[in-house]
Amino acid sequence: MKQYFTLFLIAFISSISLLIAQETEPDYIEFNDRKNTVHGVYLGLSLHYGTIDKADTFISSLKVAYVANQQFEIGFVGTGFYTDLNQLGTDNPNKDLVGFYGGLHLEPIFFGKSKFNLSIPLLIGGGAAGLLNEDVFDDVTVEDDEWKGVFVFEPGVNLLYNINRYIQLEAGVKYRMSSNLSFRPEYSLNNINGFSLGIGVKLGVFNMGRNRYKQKI
């Protein structure tokens, strides 16, 4: 009798445990219980408006980057700019400032799992700037000896909005710091420092936190 009672008790406890497990079981099967690291890669385009030496400056950038676990970006960025010097009343009204720079792109990301993220982009690199000559026949040239090399360090703050796994919008402010350069006696510019405000779009695969080891039943 005791043997039958023991077997009955074991069967009863097993049945209750099975029912509890079925009630708490999620609606997916997990094939691997290790922590999932989310990877991403994208191509980004941004437009900025700012100033260099109090003159209107228009900036465009193209970057490609890898996103690690929605927490950090690393990649490369290239930037071109145009500064309207005519409004400053310089001695030569046909001159404007143009340039380009690029280098390493680093960007820590906060609240990466949310729709809205906060990030701190940083560019470390270099490039060149030159005075643009526009004659009466609208020919546009930059003399080779007028190009000046420049080192650039550009931190910023961005607000990011994730539309979906493939599209992300950004808006933010950056401050550009550069090494010294000189165009004297034509123009008394010492650097290309300045703030800029802008917007951009990133196209790629951000994964949005999906776990590739989980599949719905």
Describe it for me?
With 217 residues, this protein is mainly β. The protein is 11% helix and 55% strand. The chain contains one helix and twelve strands; from the N terminus they run αββββββββββββ. The two termini are 43 Å apart. About 3% of the residues have low confidence.
Following the backbone from N to C, one meets helices and strands in this order, namely: HEEEEEEEEEEEE
Helix count from the secondary structure assignment = 1
Would you identify the regions where 5 or more consecutive residues have pLDDT less than 50? 28-33
Oligomer: single chain
Please summarize the sheet with the most strands.
10 strands, antiparallel
N- to C-terminal distance: 43 Å
Indicate the radius of gyration in whole angstroms.
29 Å
Class by SSE composition = mainly beta
Mean pLDDT: 80
State the helicity in percent bands.
10-25%
Q: How many distinct beta strands? A: 12
Strand content: over 45%
Can you tell me the overall shape?
elongated
Q: What's this entry about, in short?
A:
The chain is mainly β.
Q: Which helices and strands, and how do they pair?
A:
Elements: H1 2-24, E1 28-30, E2 39-52, E3 55-68, E4 72-83, E5 95-110, E6 116-119, E7 122-134, E8 140-141, E9 148-162, E10 167-178, E11 194-205, E12 214-216
Antiparallel strand pairs: 1-12, 2-3, 2-11, 3-4, 4-5, 5-6, 5-7, 6-9, 7-8, 7-9, 9-10, 10-11
